[in-house]
Specification:
The structure is a single chain. By secondary structure, this protein is an alpha+beta fold. The chain has a single domain, classed as Roll (Lipovitellin-phosvitin complex, beta-sheet shell regions), CATH 2.30.230. It is about 15% helix and about 40% strand. The protein has four helices and 13 strands. Strands 1, 4, 5, 6, 7 and 8 form a six-stranded antiparallel sheet that branches. A three-stranded antiparallel sheet has the order 9-10-13. It starts with 17 loop residues before the first strand and ends in a 20-residue tail after the last strand. This is Vitellogenin domain-containing protein. One of its GO terms (molecular function) is lipid transporter activity. It comes from Meloidogyne javanica.
Length: about 270
């Protein structure tokens, strides 16, 4: 995420005419569950029996303009697991693809998944999606899942605001410039907000770290002083969606806003 100006830190700064590459990993688990009197959901089986589907894909996103983009899924791999499984660390998002049984999908379905879709990207939020007229619901939903992760809603909490606050506190405390720079280099911030996804309005956690602590860029402060300050040039942003904490599911059952199907686009 570029940090060339304060306004650009509020969302990833995608460049017109540029292709961005993503590695997409997803794991879908299903199994019977029960709800006790307290409302807690638990698995009915104590042996960890679940059906698990694992998905891995290389995603290409081409921005024809800063607002309009094209998404394509390539090198799609699937795995399945239907036997007893040991319970792992709950903080782990997915298991390695190597432990799953490879699953081959028909060529026709693979071609559907490889159809591209277009979307509008405004201030870090996806506001409109257009699918190929030949695409099918299951394939569209998988692409919506990818769009969930590309959407970066950093407007309420962002690295620039945090770094500015740190800089102000350091100046008030008369901390030396080298100590101030060291603290900015250690910038790490995490926050959780409700965000509209395919599943509904879900709790989404963002974690922001400096990508290159030793490299800084000069920019104006976000307050009225317009003073020059040294800030990290780029950030790494990790996004995690908790699908177990979602609300308003029925209100957006159709997923992200969709327009009429588009004519088949060049891949």
């Amino acid at each position: 995420m570029d940090n060339a100006a304060s306004e650009q830190t509020r969302a990833p700064n995608f460049q017109e005419g540029t292709v961005y590459h993503y590695s997409y990993d997803a794991q879908v688990e299903s199994g019977l569950s029960t709800v006790d009197e307290s409302g807690t959901t638990t698995q009915t089986s104590d042996n960890g029996q679940q059906a698990v589907t694992r998905i891995q894909s290389q995603v290409k996103v081409y921005f024809a303009s800063q607002r309009r983009a094209l998404l394509c899924m390539t090198q799609n791999k699937f795995g399945q697991f239907n036997e007893q499984r040991k319970q792992t660390d709950s903080n782990q998002c997915y298991e390695p693809l190597s432990i799953f049984e490879p699953k081959q999908i028909p060529q026709e379905q693979r071609q559907k998944l490889e159809l591209c879709c277009q979307f509008d990207y405004v201030d870090g939020v996806i506001v409109r999606v257009q699918f190929d007229k030949q695409d099918e619901p299951w394939s569209k939903n998988m692409k919506r899942g990818v769009l969930n992760m590309i959407q970066m809603n950093l407007r309420q909490n962002n690295a620039q605001e945090l770094a500015t606050e740190q800089s102000r506190n350091q100046q008030e405390g008369n901390i030396e410039e080298n100590e101030s720079t060291q603290m900015r280099d250690q910038l790490a911030h995490s926050f959780t907000i409700p965000e509209v996804t395919v599943e509904g309005e879900c709790q989404t956690t963002y974690t922001i770290n400096t990508a290159n602590p030793s490299k800084h860029c000069t920019q104006k402060s976000s307050d009225e002083s317009n003073k020059q300050q040294q800030m990290p040039c780029s950030f790494n942003v990790t996004k995690s969606i908790n699908h177990k904490q979602c609300s308003r599911i029925g209100d957006i059952s159709a997923g992200l806003q969709t327009e009429q199907p588009q004519a088949r686009c060049a891949q």
